[in-house]
Design goal:
With 299 residues, the protein is of the alpha/beta class. The protein has one domain: Aldolase class I (TIM Barrel), CATH 3.20.20. The chain contains twelve helices and ten strands. The strands form two sheets. It has an eight-stranded parallel beta sheet. Helix 7 links the parallel strand 6 and strand 7. Helix 8 packs across helix 9 and helix 10 runs antiparallel to helix 11. The longest helix has 18 residues. The model has no long low-confidence stretch (mean pLDDT 96).
């Protein structure tokens, strides 16, 4: 009998979905959002970001959010960190995973994080070592892996080199992010091959935005290549405050529809996520970009 295909959808709505919205949600609303995701079946959630709240006010109160999230067996909460101070905050707050963003463009890295690529790679080495000592897995997300809004095409060799450095420091996972939504399936295939060669044995994850309507095609291409973890955001909200014209993540509910209809199981209730996307849109004062909440499932 053929083995059942399974994909883990990492819910990034509470962090990447909210960080670019005009309306700032209170920690209690963000806790309620996370609880709805857990109730729907999400088991990996990027819950918070330990960054300077003056630069990203939408992510203020990370410690308060982490103190209020439902703690259930099998549910893992990730926190984004950019430096040792962020790591210390994340560890004190009790995250289950640490996600470090390494940007494949100097211009974007300086604008987004105030550090060059080389400086962030050095910081990553220290963060990875400290997280390992604390017994918390640390992974890397390579931002603008498909293209940069300031420097143009991202050389795939650079992405592979960053992956090699992440692997050398013990990253438990490497994610490739199409931060501005310029990627196409051919790039997914190329980067998957390059990163698997550069970081043998390290699980690969993808993070797609649907800016140019290629996000779902890219996600399904990754699944066809054997990638078993994909990022998505309930409602399809999101974007980066430091990337011009950045739009939302692929929507969790729309991705679930494509996966489930393709015979790929996720363990997540598609209808419950669609309800959450609509609920979140009401909180944010705007319609959710996701389509499933409007069209409904099939059959």
């Amino acid at each position: 009998m053929e083995a059942e295909l399974h994909t883990t959808v990492l819910e990034v709505g509470p962090r990447d979905g909210l960080q670019n919205e005009d309306r700032v949600l209170a920690p209690d609303d963000r806790i309620a959002f996370i609880a709805r995701c857990v109730d729907a079946g999400a088991r990996r959630i990027e819950a918070v970001s330990f960054v300077n709240p003056k630069r990203v006010p939408q992510m203020a109160g990370a410690e308060e959010v982490m103190a209020g999230v439902p703690r259930r067996d099998g549910v893992s909460y990730s926190g984004l960190v950019l430096n040792r101070r962020g790591l210390d905050r994340a560890l004190d707050a009790g995250v289950d995973e640490v996600n470090v963003v390494l940007v494949a463009s100097d211009t974007f890295s300086v604008r987004n994080q105030g550090s060059t690529m080389a400086e962030m790679l050095d910081a990553w080495d220290g963060i990875a070592a400290a997280a390992h000592d604390a017994g918390v897995p640390a992974g890397v997300t390579i931002a603008v892996a498909f293209g940069c809004p300031f420097e143009g095409e991202t050389p795939p060799e650079r992405v592979a080199e960053i992956a090699r450095r992440a692997h050398a420091a013990g990253a438990f996972e490497i994610a490739l992010a199409d931060t501005i939504g310029v990627g196409v399936p051919a790039q997914v295939r190329d980067l998957t091959a390059r990163v698997r060669e550069a970081a043998p044995g390290t699980p690969l994850r993808f993070h797609f935005h649907n800016t140019r309507n290629t996000g779902y095609a890219n996600a399904l291409t990754a699944v066809d290549l054997g990638v078993t973890t994909l990022d998505a955001a309930a409602g399809g909200f999101g974007g980066c405050p430091f990337a011009p014209a950045a739009t939302g993540n692929i929507a969790t509910e729309d991705l679930l529809y494509a996966l489930h209809r393709s015979g790929v199981e996720t363990g997540i209730d598609m209808a419950a996520v669609a309800e959450t996307g609509t609920w979140l849109g009401d909180l944010l004062g705007k319609p959710a970009p996701a389509l499933l909440g409007r069209a409904g499932g099939y059959p």
